[in-house]
Write a structure and sequence with these properties.
Rossmann fold, alpha/beta, 250 residues, single chain, 9 strands, 3-stranded antiparallel sheet
């Protein structure tokens, strides 16, 4: 993935992003942090091909994001809200992308069962969203994104509304899933500790118009265990990222 001088202006006057540039290699997990309103979600939607840049160039898998989404790479998007269909069971919600992709019926059951087992929901396949906790609904949303075996997974603050214990548990599960599959992951979050725990790199954005003002490597071995959060190196790196974010927000 490659971006050069990327910018987005809405209604000809509201500049959301300016002069964005980055390279993300296949299989990397990268987080994006920055102050509210800096354009983090807009950047994620650019990568997904849901927003068209006003200036600059962006390529995903060697082609434009919209073409990549349709033809060149499998892409999935996880939003902050689980966005489950309340009239469909867990199994049927997860199956939805396979239906859209016209995956043969003979393959759907196996794929859905496998991904539900992966996220710890095998025993809840017949339940409905209103029967699940917030954390479980996010697991369903994650399973739905993973059932197509994506090469690129975009996550827009998926755990932002959850309590800290549930968030940490899902961080650990997401780390395990990435370690097993090694898709490219781009994760938007306001939580600096979450970004440090999950990421190989963190892109720090400035206030609007959003620019990438720092590209910080996270020199901690992957995959990461829950015990990492209590170690001195983790606290030090988290503090460094927080300090960088404070400087950019002034």
């Amino acid at each position: 993935m490659h971006a050069v001088s990327l910018g987005v202006t809405y209604e000809r006057t509201i500049q959301a992003l300016a002069d964005i540039g980055f390279d993300i290699s296949r299989g990397q997990f990268v987080s994006i942090v920055g102050p509210s309103g800096c354009g983090k979600s807009t950047l994620l939607r650019l990568i997904a091909g849901l927003v068209t840049p006003t200036t600059g160039e962006l390529s995903v898998a060697g082609t434009s994001p919209s073409v990549a989404r349709r033809t060149a790479t499998r892409l999935s998007f996880v939003f902050q809200d689980a966005t489950l269909l309340p009239w469909r069971s867990v199994r049927d919600n997860v199956c939805l992308p396979l239906e859209f992709n016209h995956t043969p019926h003979s393959q759907r059951e196996k794929l859905v069962a496998g991904v539900l087992s992966m996220v710890g929901l095998a025993d809840f396949a017949a339940r409905y969203p209103n029967e699940l906790s917030g954390g479980m609904r996010m697991r369903v949303s994650l399973a739905r994104a993973l059932v197509t075996e994506p090469e690129l997974l975009l996550l827009d603050e998926p755990f932002g509304a959850l309590d800290d214990i549930t968030r940490q548990t899902l961080n650990e599960e997401l780390m395990n899933l990435w370690s097993a599959r090694r898709w490219t992951g781009i994760f938007v979050t306001h939580n600096i500790a979450e970004a440090v725990y999950l990421s190989e790199r963190i892109l720090v954005m400035s206030p609007r118009p959003g620019r990438i003002v720092a590209d910080l490597p996270i020199p901690l071995p992957m995959p990461r265990s829950p015990e990492l959060r209590s170690q001195a190196d983790f606290a030090r790196i988290t503090g460094e990222v927080a300090a960088c974010l404070r400087r950019t927000s002034r």
